[in-house]
Amino acid sequence: MHPQRFIFIEGFNQDYTRILIKRMVDILLSSVMLLLSLPLYPVLVVLIKKESGLNAPAFYLQKRVGQDEKVFVIYKFRSMIENAEKLGAQWAAKDDNRVTRIGRIMRKTRVDELPQLLNVLKGDMSFVGPRPERPEFVEKLAENIPYYRMRYRVKPGITGWAQVSYPYGDDIKDAKEKLQFDLYYIKNYSVFLDLAILAQTAQVIIWQKGAR
Q1: What does the buried/exposed string (b/e) look like for 2-40 if buried means 16 or more CB atoms within 10 Å of the residue's CB?
Q2: Which of 143, 144, 140, 149 lies closest to 186, judged by CA?
Q3: Would you say 92 and 129 are in contact if contact means Cβ atoms under 8 Å apart?
Q4: How many Å apart are CA 18 and CA 63, to the nearest integer?
Q5: Residue 38: left (phi > 0), alpha (psi -120 to 50), or beta?
Q6: What are 44-70's pLDDT values in tens digits?
Q7: Does residue 1 belong to any structural domain of this protein?
Q8: How far apart are CA 92 and CA 42, in angstroms?
Q9: N or C, where is the chain less crowded by C-beta within 10 Å?
C-alpha cells in the first residue's frame, strides 16, 4: 500500500462533527468519573506514601506523544519505585520488580490511571483512543513500522481498541500488531464503538487482565 492511498480511504479524514461529538462525550464522562473517583485520591496517596515514605511522590508525571505528535505531560499515580528508570526508558516487563506492592494492585485495577481524567478534561487525551506512547519509543517505532505515525491523527486515549483487543506489548513486534487495531479504530470510529470499548475495558478491569 502506498501512503497516498490513505488520502482516499474513507474514515482517515477527520470529520468536524464527530470530533465535536467525541469531545463532548469526553468532557461529560471524564467529569462524572473524576467526581466519583475523588474520594479514592487521599486513600491512594496515603497508601503510596506508607509504602515508599512520607517524602516520596504519590503522583508520576511523564512526557507522552499526543495528537499531531505534540508532546504533553501525562498524570498517573506512582506505581513503581522512585528512580525506576535511572538506566533509561524501558517498557514494563512481566512481574517487573520495579513495581511496588500497592502499585501492583493499582495496575491490576487500573486506578493508577485515574489522574489521566485531568488530561482528558484539558484536551491532551480522549477517553478512548490509541495508547499514548513515550517520545523515546516513538522515533524507534516509526523507523521500524510502516504507517506508525498515522496513529497520531487522533488524540490518545485512557483506553482503546488495541488495549482491550491485544495483550500488553513490550517490543516492536507487539507494537506492529497493536497498530492494526489503532488504524481500524481511527477509520471506523463511532460513539457505538467507543461504548463497546468502554464495556470491554470494564470487563478487563473486573477480570484483571493484561496489566503489568
Answers
A1: eeeebeeeeeeeeeeeeeeebeebbeebbeeebeeeeee
A2: 149
A3: no
A4: 27
A5: alpha
A6: 999 999 988 888 899 999 999 999 999
A7: no
A8: 26
A9: N
169 DSSP β-pair partners: none
In a domain, 4, yes or no: no
How many domains does one find in the chain?
Answer: 1
pLDDT digits (tens, 9 = 90+) for 79-123: 888 776 665 666 565 666 788 899 888 888 889 999 999 999 999
Question: Residue 43 carries which DSSP code?
Answer: H
Separation between Cα atoms, residue 133 and residue 140, nearest integer Å: 11
Q: How many residues does the chain have?
A: 212
Question: Are residues 77 and 60 in contact, defined by beta-carbon separation less than 8 angstroms?
Answer: yes
Predicted model pTM: 0.83
**Cell numbers placing 181:** 487495531
List, in order, residues 6 or more apart from 165 with CB less than 8 Å away. 181, 200
SS3 66: coil
- Give the domain range for residue 178: 9-207
The reply to whether 62 falls in a domain is yes
187: CB partners within 8 A, 6+ apart:
9, 10, 11, 12
Map grid coordinates 498515522 to a residue. 150
d(CA 83, CA 41) in angstroms, rounded, equals 22
Q: How far is CA 67 from CA 11, 93, 134, in A?
A: 16, 27, 13
Residue 3 lies in a domain: no
